């Protein structure tokens, strides 16, 4: 039995929704989606209000997804212009640099002026509605300005994470045929400089990139760059003399707002294309409800704008809701392990949203770096990106939030646009490791291997059986791959690619990616459960578990374990950990192999890439596939050298 944390009564007393509101609104949202989303859609400023709300078919032979289709709007007008009257002097963005001395506050009025000037800049460079613009910037306010300026013109942005290599950047430019690339001289990360402009120069040498007419360079660090005339232009010179007046271009609700590539945990990244109207309705509404947003909140999501979390919950959701959003350029452990908590105190952050990978890394360092800071301003915590191990959840709750702050564990994907399964903090009691219940309008289902929908307590593949407004509309330039990836395995449904379990309270537990499920003697085991058991051991900081060939069981369990700072692996500890998992879950989950891992292969967004570990566990080190989206490809060599099956 997992632990249940009831809703904090004082939090609930002041929150937007209680449990019976959730029950009532959820029932309405799934029984009458048109009525529900028609009403919620009115939260936006429409240039032409929609009369048609939903037109969707998930049938692979007639696939179409349209929301608010005859409506017209502009995203930047919703995020900026309409805030001016009430919130013109409110801070829209708090920028916190990599260097703790570097921070800046930008009001809605200032942001509006910058966006208009930059939109005029793009217009003068010939950017028109429908053009693609690649954004390869650090986490600086110019990234948000660039995104909003594209939206103002109806240009489609493709943000590429600043940590990606020239090859990854080139691949995305080729795929989207971008006309303009927006970058900076350099980025900063943990005191080091990242050569962004040099990377752009290298990317643009690659074949297929000559769609790019202009490269706009933000002078950020002041590092020397080579400017190639007439292609390369400085942001600040282009902005000189631009008017701060730029009428927003009305676009149809289904017009693409952006294309964004998935993080590549399971293979070649997919260019996920999102809409304008449905997307903005869904993400602004989830942002308001899941974070129980109030006018005076200081909201901080640590995600990079290169990921969907940065799009929906650093830039568009908060600004559309008139919130104050923090943009952080740095990392959790620079200059030291207290950085997150120092930033929280410095800016009086009240809502904090981060990823399990960061929580586990900080947990490794113990409680002292957290306790050095006050954190008294915090009232709500969030998690996203991977299943959060119950151990990490408890630590986040107890040490970071001092048992005062509810945790929202939010399950969603690049493809879903926004949060799909999550507690509403004033309404839903939480269980560590469970994303709990579906958001309004979201209809999850669990199917077995044959595709039969399971009722009640169940485990299997997670589907969504009906559309929601924030859903992906296609894979850019490859509609066939879109249909095949998401709608063919279980026709009539959206297939998430994740596995889940539903418990006796109807709560959902994400068990990991379906591709990663291990089948031991006919029992299906999700990676999350075994990993969480390992992480629950006081000496274990992180663990990744994969299946490996096993003569008797079909598949065996191969575990990679990173120990907490100061511990070293020994045969005794290996035996202890194996016995520990056996005791925690049962004999079926006993690891057959346990390898010490000084580092685990992770994507740039911090997700463990198990397909690589599977190949190492299968003794196929020459078949690792694409490892270009790894944050640190060098960890792979050690794991290959030390592998236990050769
Ligand atoms: P690719 O699709 O290219 O393999 P990716 O799936 O890692 O990449 P994202 O869209 O960034 O790219 O990640 C979504 C995935 O992250 C989900 O499908 C799920 O596996 C995992 N995830 C996100 N949030 C949670 C959560 N709260 N609990 C469990 N898993 C989560
Ligand atoms: Mg995915």
UniProtKB/TrEMBL annotation:
Q: Which InterPro entries match?
A: Ac_CoA_lig, ACAS_N, AMP-bd_C, AMP-bd_C_sf, AMP-binding_CS, AMP-dep_synth/lig_dom, ANL_N_sf
* Maturation and modification: Acetylated. Deacetylation by the SIR2-homolog deacetylase activates the enzyme.
Keyword ATP-binding assigned to the entry: answer is yes
Q: Where is the AMP-dependent synthetase/ligase domain?
A: 80-465
- Single GO biological process annotation from the record: acetyl-CoA biosynthetic process from acetate
What is the top-level taxon of the source organism?
A: Bacteria
The catalytic activity of this protein is classed by the Enzyme Commission as: 6.2.1.1
Q: Which residues carry this modification: N6-acetyllysine?
A: 607
What are the GO cellular component annotations?
Answer: cytosol
Q: Does the keyword Repressor apply?
A: no
What the entry lists under Pfam families is as follows:
ACAS_N (PF16177), AMP-binding (PF00501), AMP-binding_C (PF13193)
The molecular function terms of the Gene Ontology recorded here are: acetate-CoA ligase activity; AMP binding; ATP binding; metal ion binding
**Could you tell me which residue ranges the AMP-binding enzyme C-terminal domain spans?**
529-607
Task: State the needed cofactors, names only.
Answer: Mg(2+)
Q: Which family does it belong to?
A: Belongs to the ATP-dependent AMP-binding enzyme family.
Role summary: Catalyzes the conversion of acetate into acetyl-CoA (AcCoA), an essential intermediate at the junction of anabolic and catabolic pathways. AcsA undergoes a two-step reaction. In the first half reaction, AcsA combines acetate with ATP to form acetyl-adenylate (AcAMP) intermediate. In the second half reaction, it can then transfer the acetyl group from AcAMP to the sulfhydryl group of CoA, forming the product AcCoA.
Designated name of the protein: Acetyl-coenzyme A synthetase
């Amino acid at each position: 039995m997992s632990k249940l944390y009831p809703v904090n009564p004082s939090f609930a007393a002041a929150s937007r929704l209680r449990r019976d509101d959730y029950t009532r609104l959820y029932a309405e949202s799934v029984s009458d989606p048109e009525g529900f989303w028609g009403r919620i859609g009115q939260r936006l400023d429409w240039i032409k209000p929609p009369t048609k709300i939903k037109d969707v078919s998930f049938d692979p032979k007639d696939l179409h997804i349209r929301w608010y289709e005859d409506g017209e709007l502009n995203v930047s007008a919703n995020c900026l212009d309409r805030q001016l009257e009430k919130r013109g002097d409110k801070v829209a963005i708090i920028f916190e640099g990599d260097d703790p001395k570097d921070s800046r506050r930008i009001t809605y009025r200032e942001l509006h002026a910058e966006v208009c000037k930059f939109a005029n800049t793009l217009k003068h460079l010939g950017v028109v509605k429908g053009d693609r613009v690649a954004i390869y910037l650090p986490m600086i306010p110019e990234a948000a300005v660039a995104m909003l300026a594209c939206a103002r013109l109806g240009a489609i942005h493709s943000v590429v994470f600043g940590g990606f290599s020239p090859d990854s950047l080139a691949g995305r430019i080729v795929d989207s045929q971008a006309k303009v690339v927006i970058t900076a001289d350099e980025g900063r990360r943990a005191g080091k400089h990242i050569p962004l402009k040099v990377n752009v120069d290298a990317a643009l040498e690659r074949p297929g990139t000559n769609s790019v007419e202009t490269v706009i360079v933000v002078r950020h660090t002041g590092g020397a760059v080579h400017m190639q005339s007439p292609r390369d232009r400085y942001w600040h010179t282009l902005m000189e003399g631009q008017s701060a007046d730029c009428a927003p271009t009305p676009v149809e609700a289904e017009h693409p707002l952006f294309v964004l590539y998935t993080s590549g945990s399971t293979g070649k990244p997919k260019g996920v294309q999102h809409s304008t109207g449905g997307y903005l309705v869904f993400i602004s509404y989830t942002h308001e409800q899941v974070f129980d947003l109030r006018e005076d909140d200081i909201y901080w999501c640590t995600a990079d704008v290169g990921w969907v979390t940065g799009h929906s919950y650093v830039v568009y959701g908060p600004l559309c809701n008139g919130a104050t959003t923090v943009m952080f350029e740095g990392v959790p452990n620079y200059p030291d392990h207290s950085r997150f908590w120092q930033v929280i105190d410095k800016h009086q952050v009240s809502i904090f949203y981060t990823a399990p990978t960061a929580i586990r890394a900080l947990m490794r360092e113990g409680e002292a770096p957290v306790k050095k800071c006050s954190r008294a301003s915090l009232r709500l915590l969030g998690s996203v990106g991977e299943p959060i191990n119950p151990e990490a959840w408890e630590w986040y709750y107890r040490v970071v939030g001092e048992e005062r702050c509810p945790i929202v564990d939010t399950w969603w994907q690049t493809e879903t646009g926004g949060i799909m399964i999550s507690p509403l903090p004033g309404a839903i009691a939480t269980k560590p490791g469970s994303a709990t219940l579906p958001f309004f309008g979201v209809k999850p289902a669990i199917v077995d291997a044959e595709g039969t929908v399971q009722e009640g307590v169940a485990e299997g593949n997670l589907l969504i059986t009906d559309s929601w407004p924030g859903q992906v509309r296609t894979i850019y330039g490859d509609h066939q791959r879109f249909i095949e990836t998401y709608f063919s395995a279980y026709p009539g449904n959206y297939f998430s690619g994740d596995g889940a379990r539903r418990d006796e309270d109807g709560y959902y537990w994400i068990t990991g990616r379906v591709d990663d499920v291990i089948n031991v003697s006919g029992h299906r085991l999700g990676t999350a459960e075994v990993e969480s058991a390992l992480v629950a051991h006081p000496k274990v900081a992180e663990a990744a578990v994969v299946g490996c060939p096993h003569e008797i069981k079909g598949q065996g369990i191969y575990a990679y374990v990173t120990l907490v700072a100061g511990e070293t692996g020994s045969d005794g500890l290996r035996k202890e950990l194996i016995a520990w998992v056996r005791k925690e879950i049962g004999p079926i989950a006993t690891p057959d192999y346990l390898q010490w891992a000084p580092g685990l292969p992770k994507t740039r967004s911090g997700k463990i890439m198990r397909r690589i570990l599977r190949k190492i566990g299968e003794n196929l080190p020459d078949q690792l596939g694409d490892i270009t989206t790894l944050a640190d490809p060098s960890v792979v060599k050690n794991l290959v050298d030390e592998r236990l099956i050769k």
